[in-house]
Amino acid sequence: MLIPPIPTLRAAVVVLSVALLSSHGFPKQDPPKKRERIAIDEPTVAAKDPDFAIQGEYTGAIKLNSGEQKIGVQVIALGLGEFDVKVMMGGLPGAGWDGKAVLRATGKREGDTVAITGKGIQGSISAGNLVLKDGMKIDTTLTRVERKSETLGKQAPQGAVVLFGAEGDEKKWANGKLVTLTDGTYLTVTKTSGIKSQDKFGAYTAHIEFRLPWMPNSRGQGRGNSGVYLQDRYECQVLDSFGLTGETNECGGIYTQHKPSVNMCLPPMTWQTYDIEFMPAQFDESGKKIKNARATIFHNGVKIHDNVELPKECPGGQPESPKPGPFQLQDHGDPLNFRNIWVLPAK
Length: 347
Hints:
Layout lengths: L5 H17 L20 H4 L9 E9 L2 E13 L2 E8 L12 E9 L2 E6 L2 E6 L2 E6 L4 E7 L15 E4 L8 E2 L3 E4 L2 E5 L6 E3 L6 E8 L14 E5 L3 E5 L32 E9 L2 E2 L5 E3 L1 E7 L2 E9 L17 E2 L7 E9 L2
Antiparallel strand pairs: 1-2, 1-8, 2-3, 3-4, 4-5, 5-6, 6-7, 7-8, 9-23, 10-13, 11-12, 12-23, 13-22, 14-17, 14-23, 15-16, 15-22, 17-20, 18-19, 20-21
């Protein structure tokens, strides 16, 4: 009888042991299933998700020994009744928070109530109210709020070029396309491969309104991704970055170049605004660039870029040149919609 070498014998024993364990209640675990992609731009459909009424912003005040202090909370939907919870002392971003003092927790929905748990903090959400209890067992009740940009609905001034104000204006865009939802008809980038304005511009002031879709099961760059390209060269990112840190590839970031000074992204399915003051790059008679382009950008009425330099075109943008350029609204496969777009060329 031929006896196998010791290493071969050991390997056989390991395989047999695994097989015996599997047959005695220890089966090999399957990898976690990939979450179904949800991408909704219809408000009435998004509202049917029980997580939709819970996600959002909450404000209130907490009583401290030094007195009463404002507090803001962002509740970010992660799908399947799960949430990230971000507690900010001083208030919400752009409304009192210093960008530093923050506590983090998680939330889990059971029926109509969400239980919040985190290091040194616990609480619950129910019927539009969020109750926090800190380590000293002091209850603090916050109320859900729906912030709106102070420039929402801003009308085009005299001399402005209206790029989208009503049905028919989609013809002012290459690949322009409309979507009709229960609350209106809008310019959309969905399944367009991106759209570009027929008009081209140099220096200007511009106003753009956009709405991010409801995509709770998606993460990062797969969650409401688009972009506004200035002169089809420099991209101001559009993304569902609600509750994130505010990076160059998140909402308000100038892609790969500048982070927003504050993440002013509101919850998905909320109309948001960009107000942009743009100065193009300057070139001498030989075509050599002598000055970088510059931009000042307000997101939902809050300045997030203050006359920043744009040293070169962003990835995906056209090369810099002295020629004016169009706006591009990017399509990354997510259902994003735009309205009330106008441009006031500089004199």
